[in-house]
């Protein structure tokens, strides 16, 4: 079986590749000749994931899956949420996003947050979704060099390290994307 993972984020591809069974060949957008920006114009994480797989299936004909992920911060009424990648602007700069979030939280006591991923699968002309959530809190400053995005400031509940301080196997086993991928893999194997 081959499936397109509808993302240009090489970090996500690397993370997901370690979780997908070997009998499933993972194709990237580049592999199928998709070089344009896949639309993400919905107002929910689930909506964006579904929009991406519909776009790939309708324009390229491949069975595929896509994820959309957002960091939801309690004290900010769920922001940045669906706008996580573009929180500090359209240039999608992780450092700017982190700095903006830390500034927004600097006067707040509540640092509770959760990462939420929804994976949409378009397979055999049906769409299924698989959510994954990891609860935790935002740290006051960056810690660690691994991971990407908000990983240096997100400490999962029950751990004293941020995602950026963890190795990939641990992050995948407790993280939002890992949980969603596990549900996807279980479905693909059934």
What's a quick, concise take on this entry?
Helices cover about 30% and strands about 25% of the residues.
Topology:
Layout (H helix, E strand, L loop, with lengths): L1 E4 L4 H8 L7 E3 L17 H16 L3 E10 L6 E2 L12 H12 L6 E12 L2 E13 L15 E3 L11 H7 L1 H14 L1
Parallel strand pairs: 1-2, 1-3
Antiparallel strand pairs: 3-4, 3-5, 5-6, 6-7
Total domains, how many?
Answer: 1
CATH topology: Maf protein
SS-derived structural category: alpha/beta
Chain oligomer state: single chain
Q: How large is the radius of gyration?
A: 16 Å
Which band does the percent of strand residues land in?
15-25%
Please state the second-level CATH architecture.
Answer: Alpha-Beta Complex
Explain the overall architecture:
- This protein has about 190 residues and is α/β, with parallel strands linked by helices.
- The protein has five helices and seven strands; from the N terminus they run βαβαββαβββαα.
- Helix 4 crosses helix 5.
- The chain is globular and about 50 Å long.
- The two termini are about 15 Å apart.
- The mean pLDDT is about 95.
Protein traits:
single chain, Maf protein, 7-stranded mixed β-sheet, alpha/beta, 190 residues
């Amino acid at each position: 079986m081959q499936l397109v993972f509808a993302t240009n984020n090489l970090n996500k591809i690397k993370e997901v590749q370690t979780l997908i069974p070997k009998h499933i060949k993972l194709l990237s957008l580049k592999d199928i000749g998709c070089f344009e920006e896949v639309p993400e114009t919905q107002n929910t994480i689930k909506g964006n994931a579904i929009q991406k797989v519909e776009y790939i299936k309708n324009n390229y004909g491949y069975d595929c899956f896509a994820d959309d992920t957002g960091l939801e911060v309690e004290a900010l009424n769920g922001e940045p949420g669906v706008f996580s990648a573009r929180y500090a602007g359209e240039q999608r700069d992780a450092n700017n996003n982190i700095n903006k979030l830390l500034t927004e939280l600097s006067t707040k006591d509540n640092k509770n947050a959760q990462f939420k991923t929804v994976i949409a699968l378009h397979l055999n002309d049906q769409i299924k979704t698989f959510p994954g959530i990891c609860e935790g809190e935002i740290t006051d400053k960056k810690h660690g060099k691994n991971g990407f995005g908000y990983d240096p400031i997100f400490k999962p509940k029950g751990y004293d390290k941020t995602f950026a301080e963890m190795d990939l196997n641990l992050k995948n086993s407790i993280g939002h994307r890992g949980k969603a991928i596990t549900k996807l893999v279980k479905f693909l194997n059934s």
